[in-house]
Amino acid sequence: MKTLEGSLRLKGDEKIAIINGRFNHIITDRLVEGAKDSFIRHGGSEKDLDLVLVPGAFEIPFVLTRLLKSGKYDAICCVGAVIRGATPHFDYISAEATKGIATATMQHDIPVSNGVLTTDTIEQAIERAGSKAGNKGAEAMTTIIEMLDLYRKI
Ligand code: INI
């Protein structure tokens, strides 16, 4: 049986965009740091990394669609933080961000990852932004690195 699986290996010339929903920036800045760190550790070059800031998670899919259409990037990593305690329309914003990222991604042949946190409390968000539950920005970047290699193989 032939198994196809991506390795965590960059060629070194991949151009990547991180889209960051600035809302709850104390959290999302840490997610960006994690994503950048993962990119560099896996052999990426800082000059090939662009950071695009949007007001909140709700805006991520609109900018993602434009960046996908631009053809400038090999992969795109989305990060943000929607916290239930911080918004009465938590379900609406988190669902639109998740659905929007998935919908935009389906229409293009470019790896995209969803590192948007959706948590009940700020404590849960802190745990996922570089403390005891890891850094979901780093995980989101690692995911697109694996997917880039898999796309090369299939
Ligand atoms: N955006 C977030 O990314 N996280 C949140 O927790 C949040 N809260 O709490 O409201 C939030 N709101 C802003 C939203 O993403 C849009 O920017 C806004 O609705 C304007 O379209």
Provide a brief overview of the structure.
The chain is of the alpha/beta class and 154 residues long. It has helices spanning 25-41, 60-70, 90-106, 122-127, 136-153, and strands at 16-21, 49-54, 75-83, 112-119, 129-131, 134-135. Helix 1 crosses helix 5 and helix 2 runs parallel beside helix 3 (90-106).
Characterize the structure shown.
With 154 residues, the chain is an alpha/beta fold. The chain has a single domain, classed as Lumazine/riboflavin synthase (Rossmann fold), CATH 3.40.50. Helix content is 45%, strand content 22%. It has a four-stranded parallel beta sheet with strand order 2-1-3-4, sandwiched between helices. A two-stranded antiparallel ribbon has the order 5-6. Helix 1 packs across helix 5 and helix 2 runs parallel beside helix 3. The mean pLDDT is 96. Bound molecules: 5-nitro-6-ribityl-amino-2,4(1H,3H)-pyrimidinedione. The site of 5-nitro-6-ribityl-amino-2,4(1H,3H)-pyrimidinedione (INI) has 15 residues, from strand 3.
Number of helices: 5
CATH topology-level name:
Rossmann fold
Instruction: Give the count of structural domains.
Output: 1
Class by alpha and beta content:
alpha/beta
Distance between the termini: 15 Å
Please tell me the overall pLDDT: 96
CATH architectural designation = 3-Layer(aba) Sandwich
